Amino acid sequence: xxxxxxxxxxxxxxxxxxYAEVNRVCQDVPFTIEFVFVDDxxxxxxxxxxxxxxxxxxxxxxxxxxxxxxxxxxxxxGLQHSKGxxxxxxxxxxxxxxxxxxxxxxxxTTQECDCVAAFRENREGEPAVRSFFAKLFYRLINxxxxxKIVEGARDYRFMKRKMVDAVLNDREYNRFSxxxxxxxxxxTEWLSYPNVERSAGVTKWSFxxxxxxxxxxxxxxxxxxxxxxxxxxxxxxxxxxxGLCVAVGKVLIPGGPAAGWLSMVGILVFxxxxxxxxxxxxGLYVSRMYLETKGRQIYIEKETDLDIR
Length: 309
Ligand code: UDP
Ligand code: MG
Known about the structure:
By secondary structure, this protein is α/β, with parallel strands linked by helices. It has 10 helices and 8 strands. It folds into 2 domains: about 1-205, Spore Coat Polysaccharide Biosynthesis Protein SpsA, Chain A (Alpha-Beta Complex), CATH 3.90.550; about 225-295.
């Protein structure tokens, strides 16, 4: 059995399309499927639709959150509730095209791999600014982190149970699955496909949300910013040393003028700025630690028709 884990946040327009499309492509495949929809605190008719589907079709299950906890939490809950020997995580808007499912199944059962992951070969139809910053992010994180993240990789993955269990065993609160999948290891085969536009509705990711998400990725999988901060401190100390020598020398010469207060203020403000910036970076890590030590629940369930495995 293959479990399809599908996070949904205000997706009343797309769920039925998704359900129909999956049923169409999985008509004569050599595996049975189970749907695990996760309603991530939607405020539209999403939950209503999920209840109806699960009543009509006993392969359909759902978990509903008490509020919006974010896609990462939804994926976690979905994986926890899935029962299949294989588990697929995919979006409900058909941007992770279901027609790839039979091919992914063929690859995972015939080749030596634990996971088949899909990535977009292009970003056609996406705003140029978004693609630009996405590129920048991938370049940055792959440079400063040992956990490599494939550019264009989506959260569309066909995994064996052992990989799912590894992902579930990581109970960290600040989740960034693109990094986590890579961090747990296992053999991954990559499958590319042309970009697909959303089937209906609008994207739930604003630019700010994406920015925060990428920051989460960097903080969770790299401590290079912390080392950079220390290096910066060292560089400034070294640079200040000759200046200090000159200043002391000038004081020793009798009658030296105390001019140049503007440059002094400039330097002070500049250094204060650098210090605050560095403190801020350290603070970001500390805040993550703070949240992690509180051991908060990743999500809160409101309603489901399932038990945790
Ligand atoms: N999603 C979610 N919680 C959120 C935001 C998004 O569960 O807070 C789901 C959403 O319903 C969809 C998937 O995550 O199934 C991807 O979202 P979207 O299509 O809006 O993102 P995009 O494809 O534009 O990056
Ligand atoms: Mg989408």
